Amino acid sequence: MAFTMRAPAPRATAQSRVTASRAGRRALVVKAQKDKTVVIGLAADSGCGKSTFMRRMTSIFGGVPKPPAGGNPDSNTLISDMTTVICLDDYHCLDRNGRKVKGVTALAPEAQNFDLMYNQVKALKEGKSVDKPIYNHVTGLIDAPEKIDSPNILVIEGLHPFYDKRVSELLDFKIYLDISDDIKFAWKIQRDMAERGHSLESIKSSIEARKPDFDAYIDPQKRDADMIIQVLPTQLVPDDKGQYLRVRLIQKEGSKMFDPVYLFDEGSTISWIPCGRKLTCSFPGIKMFYGPDTWYGQEVSVLEMDGQFDKLEELIYVESHLSNTSAKFYGEITQQMLKNSGFPGSNNGTGLFQTICGLKVREVYERIVKKDVVAA
Ligand SMILES: Nc1ncnc2c1ncn2[C@@H]1O[C@H](COP(=O)(O)OP(=O)(O)OP(=O)(O)O)[C@@H](O)[C@H]1O
Ligand SMILES: O=C(CO)[C@H](O)[C@H](O)COP(=O)(O)O
């Protein structure tokens, strides 16, 4: 099968519209006046919440993400006004049977076409369109390619966005979802049994078969991420079985692309139990933490939330104590969380930190293109 690059698309489309600009201020972009393509990488194992995170992120930019119009119904791509999310499973060079014959998992580097991944991400970043293959998760086959045009924001999500050095160097911002084994297991069981009809035994054996390759090829990528959302068992309830979560937002210090979020006082170490007159907390309550740390020898700051909200609208109280969130107006985080309250993790730190990370994607985009995006 041949995959081709197409000629560059015009940088500004007919849809493009700059609605306001004032001397000394950056232009406001409503829909996609396209100057540069900013490329975001999102890495995680399967079943770790990548799709949920993508839905939260694209909701910040507005528009409804849809697969390419009139294309393959099993496409993994989601396109909205400003963002195009492509799934790196589409660069599997071995289909399901091919992996079986070779005795490799879908996580093994030999099951990916990194040359094509690099060439196509580079082309999209340069404003060109590409014909990208589709890995069909229904049939396990590699389908005929789909045309992808260069967007304002390209998100590449999947198992290996930072594995190949050439691809990694194309990324403007890197996010890793680091879900501890027990929680990953619980999420996967719940989804694969309820939605995909898999048995408990088959889920367990698939997780065990993937574990060595996950440890060798996927997990090490988290060293290179700019932001890591780490999901751990709660420390508020002994022997909890995943009902409550302790979630940490690990943020690299010193990036020119974004400012890390902080609680109360930048650089300090703070423990805060916000439950009181302004925040309703039933058992086990909420505990926030903020402070400096190191991550594989690099300076980071960590914002942490353990426990869950009872009333999502009261998140505004926590939000009002956070700084550098990149929110465009008071309460934007709470508004986003309420808008997406049906998504998993909406009452805990996973939803909160995914929303903050989405705002950071917007901040990175604005810094690179030097324009302000109007809040959705
Ligand atoms: N924050 C969360 N809290 C609770 N459950 C969650 C959370 N995020 C995801 N899940 C559960 O995990 C499942 C997988 O989530 P999602 O589809 O977003 O992951 P994914 O990484 O895109 O998976 P895949 O790569 O296999 O398609 C969801 O169906 C949901 O049941
Ligand atoms: O890890 C995965 C996605 O992140 C999948 O297991 C991989 O893409 C193979 O897909 P399938 O199991 O549908 O053949």
From TrEMBL:
Pathway(s) this gene product operates in, as recorded in its UniProt entry: Carbohydrate biosynthesis; Calvin cycle
Transmembrane portions of the chain: none
GO molecular function, one term: phosphoribulokinase activity
Keywords linked to the UniProt accession: ATP-binding, Calvin cycle, Chloroplast, Disulfide bond, Kinase, Nucleotide-binding, Photosynthesis, Plastid, Transferase, Transit peptide
InterPro entries found in the cross-reference section: P-loop_NTPase (IPR027417), PRK (IPR006082), PRK/URK (IPR006083)
Record localization: Plastid, Chloroplast
UniProt keyword Kinase present: yes
GO terms (BP aspect): reductive pentose-phosphate cycle
Start and end residues of each Phosphoribulokinase/uridine kinase domain: 39-237
Family: Belongs to the phosphoribulokinase family.
Name assigned to this protein: Phosphoribulokinase
Organism whose genome encodes this protein: Gonium pectorale
Biological classification of the source: Eukaryota, Viridiplantae, Chlorophyta, core chlorophytes, Chlorophyceae
